[in-house]
């Protein structure tokens, strides 16, 4: 397979996965006083904006077409 085609497949898979898989963000909030430490860790999961996913999917398809077309001479 051509390298451009493989890169297109990878970007396409990442774009489709970004529609369904949320990215976790961990934040730690706490107070330290002397030797005492009290903290809370929060986890927030956010999905990527659908427009970004669409750009990734479109770019992956474009790279796959460019990689496929280059090999046919």
Walk me through this protein's architecture.
The protein is an alpha+beta fold. Helix content is 53%, strand content 30%. The protein has two helices and two strands, in the order H-E-E-H. It has helices at residues 3-20, 50-70, and strands at 23-33, 36-46. A two-stranded antiparallel sheet has the order 1-2. A hairpin with a 2-residue loop joins strand 1 (23-33) and strand 2. Helix 1 runs antiparallel to helix 2. The longest helix has 21 residues, at 50-70. It is elongated. 8% of the residues are buried. The mean pLDDT is 88.
Concise synopsis of the structure shown:
Helix content is 53%, strand content 30%.
